[in-house]
Amino acid sequence: MASRQFIHPRWKFRALYVGVAVALTVLRLLPIRTLPAAIPGPDVLTCVTLAWVLRRPEYVPVVLISAVFLFEDFLLQRPPGLWALVVLMGTEFLRSREAMTREVGLMMEWAIVSVVMVAMTLAYRVAYAVAFIDEPPMALVALQLLGSILCYPMVVGLSRLAFGLRKAAPGEVDALGRRL
After folding, report:
1. CA–CA separation, 150 vs 131, rounded Å?
2. What DSSP letter does each residue of 11-38 carry, written as one string?
3. What is the pLDDT of residues 146-178, one digit of tens each?
4. Helices vs strands, H then E, count in the chain
5. Using CA atoms, how far apart are residues 143 and 157, in angstroms rounded to an integer?
6. How far does the chain reach from its first CA to its final CA, in angstroms?
């Protein structure tokens, strides 16, 4: 008799996403260096979120993305909800084009995600300017954006190798016969 699966894969991946998000946020908060970094690191959590939305949008619903990034906003002392809203807008833009991106290769997907990342960064900077909040230097923001863009293919590869996360094939159905 075959063993029965008690937890739906969707819930496993949602829990995995939260676990990855918490691990990345804690890693970002750890005092690894005693001196300030000259070059900011990439925003890996944003890369993970964008990659997962394009691969399996049902694994990262809107509420989960909002909660994770709001949590990160509070921990990183950013304006609460601003980056969460910007990421949500970017992910929803990509989610609406998920079926189209199934058929393109990684290079085209990378280009699309890069444009979305640039738009997200610009929207965030505009919100800062409109609210008259002190903005981080543009050079540091540009370096972090460049690092995030370059990090995206590695995140996609790691998601595939470590977690088995892949794009749904055109016409693929789940266990209940619903189209993905």
Report:
1. 30
2. HHHHHHHHHHHHHHHHHHHS---SS--S
3. 999 999 999 999 999 998 888 877 666 555 555
4. 7, 0
5. 22
6. 29
Q: Rounded CA gap, 83 and 144, in Å?
A: 15
3-state percent helix, strand, coil for the chain, nearest multiple of 5: 65, 0, 35
Angstrom distance (rounded) from CA 46 to CA 38: 21
The pLDDT of residue 32 is above 50: yes
Amino acid present at 60: V
| Cβ atoms of 23 and 78 closer than 8 Å | no
- The domain locations on the chain are 9-29+38-163
With vertex at residue 180, the alpha carbon angle to CA 99 and CA 54, rounded to the nearest 5 degrees, is 45
By CB atoms closer than 10 A (0-12, 13-18, 19+), residue 169 is: exposed
The answer to whether 80 and 70 are in contact (CB under 8 A) is yes
Residue 71 has pLDDT above 90, yes or no: yes
Tens of pLDDT, residue by residue over 95-122, are 998 888 888 889 999 999 999 999 999 9
Closest CA to 116 of 164, 56, 49: 49
pTM: 0.88
Measured distance CA(123)–CA(89) in Å, rounded: 10
